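Hallway conversation turned thread

IA: we were arguing at lunch whether anyone had actually written out 2-C-methyl-D-erythritol 2,4-cyclodiphosphate synthase end to end. Turns out nobody had. So, for the record, here is the sequence (164 residues) and right after it the structure tokens. Reply here if something looks off.
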Amino acid sequence: MDPRNLRIGQGYDVHQLVEGRKLIMGGVDIPHTRGLLGHSDADVLAHAVADALLGGVRGGDIGKLFPDTDPAYEGADSMKLLAAVADFVRERGYEILDVDSVIAAQAPKLSPYRDQMRENLARAMGISPENVGVKATTTEHLGFEGREEGISATAVALLVRCTD
Ligand SMILES: Nc1ccn([C@@H]2O[C@H](COP(=O)(O)O)[C@@H](O)[C@H]2O)c(=O)n1
Ligand SMILES: C[C@@]1(CO)OP(=O)(O)OP(=O)(O)OC[C@H]1O
């Protein structure tokens, strides 16, 4: 593999925590007193991963592909959006090699859901769970995540441009 065909992408997303919404991250419906607000299901982790993939192919961001003004995406399942992004990446001639991510959430405790999130993300992208990392951190009560006003997620993706 020619290292000049490797690409990296980075993604970041934030959603507000509110009452009366589900908390869905990495395609897992996580029991909690509040959930994330958004036009779609507000899966902050899936959105960060999607943006990392799009960054790797210099393909814009998910807001460009799925505008939050389009009623078609109201309440959308972000696993389906992520699968569409993975297809978009492959159609452009790239293979997804590896993805890693961090969720910043003061609560709830996310480690029990880590492997299910990895499996869901991997399935949506058509890669092995071995190639998907999910980590969680509190922010020690600092900032908007620490005050439990919202949750953020960051992700990086390693892609390779297929040459044959
Ligand atoms: N929402 C969260 C946040 C953290 N974890 C796990 O706890 C560990 C310690 O968190 P610190 O913020 O104190 O570093 C962290 O490494 C995660 O394993 C979690 O499960 N859910
Ligand atoms: C996922 C989309 C879909 O309309 O909407 P939101 O759930 O609002 O999420 P955000 O990360 O704010 O924007 C990206 C949009 O593509």
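OS: looked through it. The domain at 3-161 is CATH 3.30.1330.50 (60s Ribosomal Protein L30; Chain: A;).
IA: good, adding that to the notes. The mean pLDDT is 97.
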